[in-house]
């Protein structure tokens, strides 16, 4: 589908403390997942959904991200002279895939604050927010379905995923009502990282949002919430009680790269499905697992 006038915003200003010391000088979004940095998968997802304008919100010491999406004439010339056209194409793809812009968040005041920094770029238009910690498998449809729901209803749309009740405290949780449409629900309330006994459901908010521009006015007046940060969840709670919010329930493959163990699992899961790596990795993994 076409996503004309829709821009994507990718917050990438987090400190990445769970991956220290690797993230002391390298942004967590640049950690490789097989042979591409995590943030490239996210940009590719936006492009696949028809979005060609991407704003990345940067924090301190995040210049590696902007460098990655720049062209590198010396490297490209070297690969061209060697006749290594496959690697040349992969290098060029990272700088040619979209019109990519950057803005600094300044002081890290939470996801809501990072989204607010996109206001001058986005203007009065609906826009998509994609978090780099959540990688959505390219073979599974999510963002396209969310954009379709927004186009049909004009409402904010968030991505939800059913998780174990024992894990809901790690996420924002949504109270929902059925709409009669498969895997599309009305969101009636949101709670940021609730205790298991306080969660309204086991529908967790995952890192994909299609937001109407009204969210900016709400974020402007949103006080710091959980963790002393301006929480996007708090703004979405107000939208749910005024304009209305829909949730698209995702049942596909999602890779959480914000956790060290899940990051390793993501690399393994993606690598074994690749034509150039799977044939070698699958038997090795079976042998390795049998010896544990």
Q: How would you portray this structure in words?
A:
It catalyses: alpha-D-glucose 1-phosphate + UTP + H(+) = UDP-alpha-D-glucose + diphosphate. Keywords: Nucleotidyltransferase, Transferase. This is UTP--glucose-1-phosphate uridylyltransferase. This protein has helices at 38-48, 63-68, 73-82, 85-96, 111-116, 119-122, 143-153, 214-221, 232-241, 260-272, 278-290, and strands at residues 7-12, 32-33, 36-37, 53-58, 99-104, 127-130, 134-136, 156-162, 172-181, 184-192, 203-211, 245-249, 254-256. Strands 5-4-1-6-11-8-12-10-9 form a nine-stranded mixed β-sheet. It has 292 residues and is an alpha/beta fold. The protein has a single domain (7-258), classed as Spore Coat Polysaccharide Biosynthesis Protein SpsA, Chain A (Alpha-Beta Complex), CATH 3.90.550.10. It has eleven helices and 13 strands. 36% of the residues lie in helices and 25% in strands.
- Name of the CATH architecture: Alpha-Beta Complex
**CATH class term:** Alpha Beta
- Average the pLDDT over all residues and give the rounded result: 88
Total number of strands: 13
Low-confidence stretches: none
Radius of gyration: 20 Å
Oligomer: single chain
How many discrete domains?
Answer: 1
Superfamily (CATH H level) name: Spore Coat Polysaccharide Biosynthesis Protein SpsA, Chain A
Helix-strand pattern, N to C? EEEHEHHHEHHEEHEEEEHHEEHH
Determine the N-to-C terminus distance: 47 Å
Q: What gross morphology would you assign? A: globular
Number of helical stretches of at least 4 residues: 11
Summarize the main sheet: 9 strands, mixed
**Proportion of beta-strand residues:** 15-25%
CATH topology: Spore Coat Polysaccharide Biosynthesis Protein SpsA, Chain A
């Amino acid at each position: 589908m076409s996503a004309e006038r829709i821009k994507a915003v990718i917050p990438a200003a987090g400190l990445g403390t769970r991956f220290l010391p690797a993230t002391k000088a390298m942004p967590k979004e640049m950690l490789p997942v097989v042979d591409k940095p995590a943030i490239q998968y996210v940009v590719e997802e936006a492009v696949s959904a028809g979005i060609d304008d991407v704003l990345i919100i940067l924090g301190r010491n995040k210049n590696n991200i902007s460098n990655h999406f720049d062209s590198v004439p010396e490297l490209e010339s070297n690969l061209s002279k060697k006749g290594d056209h496959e690697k040349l194409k992969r290098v060029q793809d990272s700088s040619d895939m979209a019109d990519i812009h950057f803005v600094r968040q300044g002081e890290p005041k939470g996801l809501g604050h990072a989204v607010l920094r996109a206001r001058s770029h986005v203007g009065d238009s609906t826009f998509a927010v994609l978090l780099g910690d959540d990688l959505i498998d390219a073979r599974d449809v999510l963002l396209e379905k969310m954009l379709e729901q927004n186009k049909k209803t004009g409402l904010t749309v968030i991505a939800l995923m059913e998780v174990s009740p024992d894990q809901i405290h790690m996420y924002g949780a949504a109270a929902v009502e059925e709409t009669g449409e498969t895997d599309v629900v009305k969101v009636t309330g949101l709670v940021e990282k609730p205790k298991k006994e306080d969660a309204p459901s086991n529908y967790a908010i995952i890192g994909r949002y299609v937001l109407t521009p009204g969210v900016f006015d709400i974020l402007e007046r949103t006080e710091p919430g959980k963790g002393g940060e301006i929480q996007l969840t708090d703004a979405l709670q107000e939208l749910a009680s005024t304009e209305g919010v829909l949730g698209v329930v995702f049942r596909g493959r999602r890779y959480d790269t914000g956790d060290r163990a899940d990051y390793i699992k993501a690399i393994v899961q993606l690598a074994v499905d690749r034509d150039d790596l799977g044939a070698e990795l699958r038997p090795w993994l079976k042998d390795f697992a049998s010896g544990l």
